[in-house]
Amino acid sequence: MTKIAILGIAHMHGYSYVRALKRMNDIEIAGLYDEDRSRMNKACKHLGIKPCEKPEELVARSDGVIVTSENSTHREFVEIAAGAGKHILCEKPIATTVEDAEAMIEICRENNVKLQMAFPVRYSASVRKAREIISGGLLGEVVSLVGTNHGRMPGGWFIDPVLGGGGAVMDHTVHVVDIVRWLLNCEFTQVYATYGTMIHDIPVEDCGLEMFKLSTGQYMTLDCSWSRPKAHPYWGDVTLHIVGTEGTLFLDVFNSKIEVYSNEKGGRWDNYGDNLDSLMIEEFLKVLREGKEPFTDGNDGLQSLKAVTAAYKSFREGKVVEI
Amino acid sequence: MHSIAILGAGMMGNVHARAYRAIDQRNSLWIVDPIESRAKAISEKYGATVASFEEVLENSSVDIVGICTPTFTHRELAVRALKAGKHVFCEKPVALTLEDARAMDRAAKKSGRKFMVGHVVRFFPQYIRVKELAAAGDVGEIVMARLYRGGSFPSHGIDNWFADITKSGGVFVDLSIHDFDFLRKLLGPVKTVEARSVTLSSERKKNSFDHGMAILRFESGALAHIEGSWAEPAGMPVNFGTFYEFVGTKGMITNSYERETMLRLQTSIDGKPRYLQENPAYFDPYTEELKSFILSVEKDREVPVNGQEAIESLRVALAANMSAKLHRSVELSEVF
């Protein structure tokens, strides 16, 4: 029986991870800790898991730890888990500062603990297929990329500049940066960013556009906006248009959709594709049970966060900055 | 009823000849092209008289000149036609430089003749609808836009002129200028452009910008992402397409040529596979555009897209080229 502790349930992905775990064999959810007791109790009731008053205690009786707290509090929970020698799956973005992210990687290294990053998009079969197409030379040489990660404005702590560490740029840059790093085996070297609070009356940016330079020479734009209106039938998208000298590839990771029209609930899209959270959790179980190195690790988290913090710097300075 | 001389018997020359015929069967058409066979083809198809440019200029019965030649030739042809007292309709982009475009605009003002530039996207129904919806306020104020326009490389150009950036201006000036123009009308003046473009390595496309992406910031604060592409391989079943997404404070508007298709055909006759994907319509944006020009001539009204408008849209495209060349963001005020 593999026992999993959940530290923080601020991120709604935590609910999805718990549900994925519950569908798997030989898993026990050891319990949930959250600083916000009402949030903790609500989630425990909803998910049928045990609340826990002390994170250290919960971690001590677990085999692995999932951190789905607010972005800025990932570090403290990762430190508790790493201190106890427990492998970790950490929600994205890894942290809100590069300093925190580096400290997290370091403490995991010191304690011989594996740190997996929650980049579910990289677990999509469509992304793997894209990588095969690129490495198989079907596009020729890749010369240009255009990405999007649209979403709805999430509200709550996501729009708290301290807890979230920013807005749409912080929330929606890292997924596409991560898959492109893997697809092209590259790093992000430069960024120009422009963003603003355009749609909602909130204290952080809700729309942003970024122009990145990659270590492999290409430029890539990314639209990280929370620009999907409530009326839209789906939460958002992750897309990538890859242009090569011999061909082009369009990737729309969440487009395996069914259109549903209900007189009661209106219209919506349902996704029938692979459950990426489940695939990522399966990977975490391999990390725990077989000692596998995680497919998406702390360094991936750090590198994508560097792209984010550089994007903020670029806008403040009004120019291209090095990552 | 008009006497119209079309300069250039290429792709756009054909489009214009067809449209002028559709507008009024009685229109007299003249066709000018250095390649006799191309001029003859249009002459036969649309009942046009083959002529030289000089003959057209000297013929006082010709009241309209339509310029459908490669971009680098626009200035000289337009200025001479205007000086000869002709009304001029010039295909987009108006010219390759602001200097050329301004010379054309000055010639038009001096002549007192009508001068219109073919920013035809303003006449496409799915773009007209965006303006109507934006005005109706259903989605609030438009604050962000994404537009794609692209397909395979335009290899139909005579002497492969699209491939030479000194003749076509590349993908921003020749293609994305449609979207720059539309966005300018929708969102107002552009403030900053951050753009990059790449040239594909194939020898055929040497010297030209084939794929470009531009991030625009408008004076209003609105943001836009424009992607223009000549990067699709040749010979594909679908060789051109557009996409747009306009985000407002209360909703969004989006359309994609791939999603929204009325008719799809897959057939194989005698072992020859054929694929067709189309939205057939009786409404022809090019005919509407030229009709609006003729109306302006007949009623002596301001044309829908004048020289000044075309110059402003060209400025955005040139700013994109400048940003792509210098690898830094460019203020529109730097392009003058």
TrEMBL record, chain B:
Per UniProt, residues of the Gfo/Idh/MocA-like oxidoreductase N-terminal domain are 4-119
Q: Which organism is it from?
A: Mesotoga prima MesG1.Ag.4.2
User: What's the protein here called?
Assistant: Putative dehydrogenase
* Pfam families membership: GFO_IDH_MocA (PF01408), GFO_IDH_MocA_C3 (PF22725)
GFO/IDH/MocA-like oxidoreductase domain: which residues? 128-253
Gene3D superfamilies linked:
Dihydrodipicolinate Reductase, domain 2, NAD(P)-binding Rossmann-like Domain
InterPro entries (alphabetical): Gfo/Idh/MocA-like_OxRdtase_N (IPR000683), Gfo/Idh/MocA_Oxidoreductases (IPR051450), GFO_IDH_MocA-like_dom (IPR055170), NAD(P)-bd_dom_sf (IPR036291)
Gene Ontology terms for molecular function: nucleotide binding
Ranges annotated as spanning the membrane:
none
